[in-house]
Amino acid sequence: MSNTQSIAPVPIDQIVKATSILHQRTVAPKFGHDLLPYFSFKRGYLNLNNGSYGALPKVVTEACNELMAWQEENTDFYYRIGFIPPLIGVREQLAKLVGASDVDELVMVANASTGLGVVLRNFLWESGDVIIRCNTTYATVYKTIQYIHDVTPGVQISEFQLAFPTTYQAILDGWKKHIDNVKQNAPPSKKIVAVIDSIVANPAAAMPWKEMVKICKDAKIWTIVDGAHSVGQEELKLADCGADFFVSNCHKWLNSKRGVAFLWMPKESQKIMLTTIPTSASYVTPGPDRPDTNIVSQFQYNGTIDYTTYLSVHVALQWREWVGGEAAIHAYCNNLAKAGGKLIAETMNTQVMDPDGEFTKAMVNVTLPFPSDFQAQYDASVGTALSNKLLAQNMYAVTYYHNNIWWTRVSAQIWNELDDFKILGNALVTICSEIVTEHKNANVPGNCKAASFESYLQQPIKGAVALDLDNALGAPKPVTTTKVVPVGYHTQLASIRP
Amino acid sequence: MQKNEGKGFIEPVTLDDVLKPNQLFRHHRASKFGHEFLQYYSFKKGFLNLNNGSFGALPKAITEAYNELTAWQEDNTDYYYRIGFIPPLIGVREQLAKLVGASDVDEIVMVASTSTGMGLVLRNFLWKSGDIIIRCNTTYGTVYKTIQYIHDTTPGVEISQFELLFPTTHQAVLESRAGKNTLTNAPQGSKIVAVIGSIVANPGASMPWKEMVKISKDAGVWAIVDGAHSVGQEPLNLSTSGADFFVSSAHKWLNAKRGCAFLWFSKKSRDIMLTTIPTSASYVSPGPERPPTNIISQFQYNGTIDYTPYLSVHFALQWREWIGGEAAIQEYCNKLAREGGRRLAETMSTQVMDPEWRAGAFGDGLFQVNVVLPFSKEFSATYDASVSTALRNKLLSQNMFAVTFYHRQLWWTRVSAQIWNEISDFEALGRAFVSICSDIVAEHENAHIPPESKAESFYSYLEHPFQGAVAYDSKDGVGAHRPVTATAVVPVGYHTHLASIRP
């Protein structure tokens, strides 16, 4: 029964054959609808929301299937030897892409929420410490900070208010004032940690984050950059950026399989990082015997997961190279976002948030055609209705409430063309007018409403899942797979996805 | 979505609607367990898999279901993440709740792995000086180290370690458990939290965990059960178990896709659970405004992950039904573990850890058996990580695998019996071990073993496992640590050490 078997590590290119299709065609199709066959959207689905979850090219899907078959061939080989060099290879490729100075500054995590959570949880918080967040900080991070405050007596939250539209100058002036104020009032020996978005989610806004980081560094404040949307959407040079930590999703704009992200932590920052979550078996108690690279070892394995998502980055990068390369992709999406935003605004007779394009990369924000009295306060049922009605029309773009206005955030991707924006605009005109009408007669539960989205987020509507055709009063009820219940106007889902 | 076009509303779908019915289930399955079942799995030709215990194995049918679920995710990803995945996920939780005897679906949530679930529970306790955490020397590495970390970063938290030395009996374990110095010495107002393994990993050993839980609860101690190996290997009735928390991997013995586990907590224990990790957007600060089910909402979504492993449980349960059902699987594997263990010991001229499988007394893991490896006493006097690595590498080089481990100054193998295994597999493994062990003894004499390879016990080695990112070195076994890229394929040598420790 025994036969000799090589246990030499194997590079991904030997395992994955799917990418051969990339090498066969010498010229990729041009950007636009010609690329739709390379993705897996259901026929006719108009995808204007790459930003939330990304989209997996078929080639990468096939490569992942091959990687999973490899995992099942000899699972012990895979988990004890096999996955390691390819994983290090992916880290090296990413380190190069994002301008890190060494592979061991970069580790893989499941998603940006996880990466930011593990950093925030590694600080040893004490009474008097201050955490700086914004009203626009992404909800999982926002709530992680809330949790830390809730369970550590004396930890303060200092929240910086961002109100769009605005300008870089206004933001930086405000930020400097805010930081100075925090610094003045904080106890001298305590730490201050700021979470800064490189690109805010809602609204989609590319921030002057490097300048914001510098202001913090000058004040000796820790900086954790939530770069969830950055990699693949903008060029990164992390070694020079001055931040202490940077996290970005590879499954959003870098075509990798959900969920995968990287956490960048230069050598100095690694001193903060005691443990992965869950703690790895290779964890060593802090002290003189603990090697500096211990946290890097811990990130390599800390519980059985499917490494395919991490390894898919290798193939995703090959795809992006073939389809045109980073610079061409960024340029196409940026131009289309700007032109598309203008076209939607014209179609709906509303405005683009950022007409000068200072904040715009591949996503654009446009106000929705609601009357101003309709939007006086936040109403979660409107959010749900917008989402459901878009899906019912086989399309999607994010909608959100900010600064007393309902907006749409539209992603421009390499499969999109200008026309897509017009279609969306027309659909939204109809949808918004329907909602205004229906809302008059609907029984909207009281807890749907709040002064702002942020205040609603403090206590989002509760319950496991509420899918209720009959009783729009939204009594949340669990649902089983055996009962298919249509989703009605007042559907509230327990988890909030801004 | 065909169903929803023009309707003006969105219908959630059940998993059986999303996927075409699996053609496989229309046919008669192979008539008996054993090598005939290999056709349903994806092992490389000739690979002798005697280690289901570590990572499980995915039947081809589940791989197919997985691929279709992934396609569904890409069809319309916004629909999937905002609506689509939710009812199927609740359905899976209901199915698991029924399988493991929970009293309500909202006592069960899904997590990525047992390590994740255990870490989450331990990290939700608000630790303070005077608190005590009870673990065993055999507590699984990630949990062992989570407890270590909590101790290291919370002044005044004590660890009380219970030593389990095998072979032993249920009776002996329970009796020594009953001598509670720990409990009588705890400061007033402190809490004591015990982590209890239902089935220890190394050795593979089923514990009298329900009795241990009872003893703990009677003494006012929290009981978190690490049940990683339990679901699919032993029947569970969690609502009557008395435990506060129970975590088990669905990808080990329940045929779900890696990584997938569930966390069960009683309604009372749920009050401890403040947050998921990462914290969900739906987190509400503790207080009168926070609903008791908030943690359930949090577990539903707390960052973008691939839900497919969780959803695969639905199909894994269909598969297990089709191949014969839980009882048939249990009977076959348990019998094979016993007989196989005996044959293995005979082949190697060594012993099974618990040769008599004494009913009611302490015994080996249900589908797993531990057998001593043919090394001399002198050779086994201290732990040596290089021996561990050599054993692993040589087994893999022979296209087979079973876990090997060091316990109580002996080297052992832990062998898993699964529905694709037969007695001859154990014999083949035994013959391989005879030559492998003899090779190792000969090579070891002339090899340059780094001193950090050695330790008194595996557990003391675990305090400072071999460091460095990755060391792959064909020439010099002295392990100069060097990072390795994917582009350079370097053969794995005798003294290869990998940074992460997998007991």
Automatic annotation (TrEMBL), chain A:
SUPFAM superfamilies: PLP-dependent transferases. Signal peptide: none annotated. GO terms for molecular function: transferase activity. Gene3D superfamilies: Aspartate Aminotransferase, domain 1, Type I PLP-dependent aspartate aminotransferase-like (Major domain). Residues 89-368 form the Aminotransferase class V domain. Keywords: Pyridoxal phosphate, Transferase. The keyword Transferase applies. InterPro entries: Aminotrans_V_dom, PyrdxlP-dep_Trfase, PyrdxlP-dep_Trfase_major, PyrdxlP-dep_Trfase_small. This is Pyridoxal phosphate-dependent transferase. It comes from Lentinula detonsa.
UniProtKB/TrEMBL annotation, chain B:
Keywords: Pyridoxal phosphate, Transferase. The keyword Mitochondrion does not apply. The keyword Glycoprotein does not apply. GO terms for molecular function: transferase activity. InterPro entries: Aminotrans_V_dom (IPR000192), PyrdxlP-dep_Trfase (IPR015424), PyrdxlP-dep_Trfase_major (IPR015421), PyrdxlP-dep_Trfase_small (IPR015422). Residues 92-355 form the Aminotransferase class V domain. This is PLP-dependent transferase.
